[in-house]
Amino acid sequence: MKRVNVVKTSRVLVAALAVVVGSAAAAMLPQAQSTSSLEQRIAPIGKVRVAGATPVAESGSQQARAGDAVYKQFCAACHTSGVLNAPKLNDAADWEPRLAQGMDTVLRHAIEGYNAMPAKGTCGNCSDDEIQAAIDYMIAEL
Questions:
Q1: Taking each helix axis from N to C terminus, what angle separates 103-112 and 128-138, rounded to the nearest 10 degrees?
Q2: Are 104 and 132 in contact (CB under 8 A)?
Q3: Residue 36 has what pLDDT?
């Protein structure tokens, strides 16, 4: 009787193992997919940019965003209330020492990051011109 139970149990285990292995093998078979789906999955996630190189214009690249749009979307979180000593919007006392260093320095600090401000604030895809437009917006009423 014991031998019969062992044989039955072994057959059940072998059958279960066959189902598992068969399922795994079926999952590894190539699935029918469209070409666009494949292209989307293997598309590059970024671009390499070399310091000092002239950026190449992309076909279909979007229009430059206005300074107020960049400010409202990316800069306002810190520059409205002066988080971590960020110069506040149109606050002469905050901006005066920074502007005394020259606009080139202010722009360089905004692009490269300075103190608590990360490079380009939180706008990693902003162009240098868009960063300049945001600065111009922040100091327009000084």
A1: 120
A2: no
A3: 73
The pTM (predicted TM-score) of the whole model is 0.58
CB 117 within 8 A of CB 66: no
Has residue 12 got a pLDDT over 60? Answer: yes
**Superfamily grouping for domain 67-138:** Cytochrome c-like domain (1.10.760.10)
∠ CA 72-108-96, nearest 5°, is 70
For residue 74, give the amino acid letter. F
Domain boundaries, the chain: 67-138
Q: For residue 80, what are the contacts with CB-CB under 8 A and spacing of at least 6?
A: 88, 89
Question: Which residues are within 8 A (CB) of 82 and not within 5 positions of it... i.e. 6 or more apart?
Answer: 88, 91, 94
Treating both helix axes as pointing N-terminal to C-terminal, what angle do 103-112 and 92-99 enclose, rounded to 10 degrees? Answer: 100
Q: Which residues are CB-contacts of 88 (< 8 A; sequence separation ≥ 6)? A: 79, 80, 81, 82, 94
